[in-house]
Specification:
- The protein is an all-alpha fold and 260 residues long.
- The protein contains 9 helices and 2 strands; from the N terminus they run βααααβααααα.
- Strands 1-2 form a two-stranded antiparallel sheet.
- It is globular and about 55 Å long.
- The chain starts with a strand and ends with a helix.
- 23% of the residues are buried.
């Protein structure tokens, strides 16, 4: 995969604590996304552009101009973003239709309900991975789809976590809309930024591991060595303590024998 960005971070920890500056940048990204979703036809390109800029922010690229970078991302990813948007409508729409069909025929059994949930989960994972890949890399659309599937299976734990977090955040927004329309509309000011931040943070970590496999393995080995050292230190400490306890016990027994 050829990177669509320059100036990748060389730091081992890409996902760093949120700062006030980054919070403002992600909030602006969410608002820009909402604005560029109004024409509908630009939804896919706007989503790809969000990740194009978000990954720059998380990679600590200097002097990230959110507005200029966002417009640049839309221009570079418009075609693939539009194609992905059409594919999202088809996949998510089909999953939603199937869920509705199953719920309308709940007497069909729990198996169909579980199958509907599983299909919807897979479709959501596919969409979560594809947009960031388009924003991050230059590649053919077919290869992007294959890479999305490959990364989702390769990094199974991260895939499960980011999907659960995303579902929870979307569910909270849905609950707010159901409880109060004004609260739901107010949530639009921040929940897109939160969702994009969550997905970007997980994807930034995955992309780092893909782009720096040797460095990542070395860091993993160093972490493993540190854990082994801590374990061995704890074992030595326990051994010393046991030895001291045995010596104290022997001394006490000798003192009792002398007194007797």
């Amino acid at each position: 995969m050829n990177s669509n960005q320059t100036g990748k971070s060389q730091n081992s920890k890409i996902f760093k604590p949120m700062t006030p500056k980054k919070s403002g940048q992600f909030l602006l990204l969410g608002l820009l996304w909402l604005l560029f979703c109004i024409p509908v036809i630009t939804i896919g390109a706007a989503t790809c552009s969000v990740f194009y800029v978000a990954l720059k922010i998380l990679n600590n690229d200097e002097d990230v101009n959110v507005w200029k970078s966002f417009i640049k991302g839309i221009k570079e990813n418009f075609l693939q973003g539009f194609l992905m948007f059409l594919l999202s409508i088809i996949t998510l729409g089909a999953a939603a239709a199937y869920i509705w069909w199953v719920l309308e025929r709940s007497s069909q059994g729990i198996l169909l309900v579980c199958l509907a949930i599983g299909i919807s989960f897979v479709v959501l994972v596919f969409n979560i991975f594809t947009y960031p890949i388009i924003g991050r890399y230059k590649n053919t659309f077919a290869n992007i789809l294959r890479n999305a599937v490959a990364l989702a299976f390769t990094f199974g734990k991260q895939t499960l976590r980011v999907t659960i977090f995303t579902i929870a955040e979307l569910a909270i927004s849905g609950v707010l809309f159901k409880l109060n329309l004004f609260a739901g509309l107010a949530s639009l000011l921040f929940w897109p930024s939160l969702v994009f931040y969550t997905i970007s943070s997980f994807m930034a970590d995955i992309f780092y591991k893909v782009e720096n496999p040797v460095k990542y393995e070395d860091e993993a080995e160093e972490t493993s060595d540190e854990n082994e050292d801590k374990t061995s230190e704890g074992t030595v400490s326990d051994t010393v303590n046991d030895t001291e306890e045995n010596q104290n016990t022997e001394n006490n027994n000798q003192d009792e024998e002398i007194e007797s």
